[in-house]
Specification:
By secondary structure, the chain is of the alpha+beta class. It is 51% helix and 27% strand. It contains two helices and seven strands, in the order ααβββββββ. Strands 1, 2, 3, 4 and 5 form a five-stranded antiparallel β-sheet that branches. Keywords: Membrane, Transmembrane, Transmembrane helix.
Length: 163
């Protein structure tokens, strides 16, 4: 076997060059991985905030659906003004945010339009239209989703009551 006796230091320079290149590659990959992780976390928080806001919409729809018969009864017995008062009472009871017991500070809050609810009448039926927003929050991300509920009431409104 042939022995090389080169004492000019070329092997050391090549080794240092390879180590430097590998170090640059590792650092650039590390930078890319940390940026991707931050981007994925932000995307997950945005999606979570939207989903929680949509959960608030479903929650409000279920509350109104559960109260539908009562609202129709109030409208039949007491008229349109009493119905609006009853809807405002329900809306005021839902203004508090709904927290989730976890470490991500997640909640949704309903924001009902001040011009809402309104009652529209046609020849065949009446509608109660409620416009509202649901604000969902996860960690520091907050998203708002607009929605509208239309409650169809059978019959026809005449002078404040269904006939």
């Amino acid at each position: 076997m042939k022995k090389f006796n080169n004492e000019q230091g070329a092997a050391l320079v090549i080794t240092l060059f390879i180590v430097t290149i590998l170090l640059l590659l590792v650092l650039s990959l590390f930078y890319q991985v940390t940026n991707t992780t931050k981007q994925i976390t932000a995307t997950e928080e945005n999606m979570g905030a939207i989903q929680i806001a949509e959960m608030g919409i479903v929650y409000y729809e279920q509350v109104i659906e559960a109260e539908k018969q009562h609202l129709e009864q109030v409208l039949n017995e007491n008229g349109e003004d009493a119905l609006l008062d009853e809807l405002n009472r329900i809306n005021n009871s839902l203004k508090e945010k709904v927290n989730f017991n976890d470490s991500k500070n997640r909640f949704f809050k309903l924001s009902i339009d001040t011009n809402s609810p309104r009652i529209e009448t046609s020849d065949s039926q009446s509608k109660i239209i409620i416009k509202f927003n649901s604000i969902g929050k996860v960690s520091s991300r907050e998203k708002m989703v607009d929605s509208e509920i239309v409650i169809n009431i059978e019959g026809q409104l005449e002078s404040g009551a269904i006939k």
